[in-house]
Amino acid sequence: MNHLRWNPLLKTYTLIATNRTERPIFPDECPFCPGSGKIKETYDVLSLPNEFPVLSPKFNAPIQETESLFKSGSSNGQCEVILYSPDHFATLYDLENQHIEKLIKLWRDRCNEMSKDHSIRYIHIFENRGQEVGSSIHHPHGQIYGYPFIPLKLKTELDSCKEHFLQTNKNLILELNEQEERDQKRIITSNNSFLAYIPYFSEHPLGVFISSRRQKNFLADFTNEEITDLATILKDVTGALDAVYKKPLPYTMSIHQAPIHSKEYSDCKNYYSLHIEFSPVLKDASNVKFHGGSEMGAWANISSQLAEESAKVLRDAFRIFKKAER
Prior knowledge:
The chain is of the alpha+beta class. It has helices at residues 97-114, 152-168, 172-183, 224-245, 293-298, 307-325; strands at 3-7, 12-16, 46-49, 72-73, 78-83, 122-129, 141-147, 187-190, 194-197, 209-212, 251-256, 275-280. Pathway: Carbohydrate metabolism; galactose metabolism.
């Protein structure tokens, strides 16, 4: 039975999703390809309800003792799958810019629709790419989760940004952008609306950020010009990542937006800004960087490469990608 369990040590919820054990494996067929009989025959980009959701309006909390430390909650929320293309072998950078713009607008529109559910507090857009990060279907796709709470990583980011704003009256994420642009050592590419860089404190080799130059809370805040620029830089960054080892790089991509329906962070337009984080999981061409005792046990992340070195590798790969694109 799917529900939430409160962790009083970390002050966050663990999501219990027993239905995930029922997910099928598709070794010889793809349910996301046109002609599979499971989806519409033609599409450019497409949203689908997740058939094995972690979160759903139908999930109720189990009965619990009121005096117990063991508290549970309902896994009320939404989970959707977003198909990037009907082409089973396409990557983001294979797609035309206008196609990626359609994808971004679909992300935006589904977030707007999810935000109508007042039980949802945070909407997370993400992509797991490759078996190394748990993707069970090769077809290009991502997901959107609407959580009934603000996940701990995002809450920590928000608290840090709010504290910085109260101390300095400045937006921490925009300040990071400005310092990275001044320094230039870790910048990969940029355009009028976005910067792509490996941050000074990167937890992952090749752990690139895409950050808005302007203060924006949500995808819905972007102009059409900014959506075009985001499509361009997404294409460039994902192309560069695959050019590093000349093969598809497994990663998790996460879009960090502001929370919704939150009294605690109702003022976050002053101090938070949308950015995209890539977390590649290879430490070299053939070895996965597994999280070990320090990362898993203490949340003290270890990166095996300086951000400056990683940025040079990725800039070189970016030039190779752009040259091949011509």
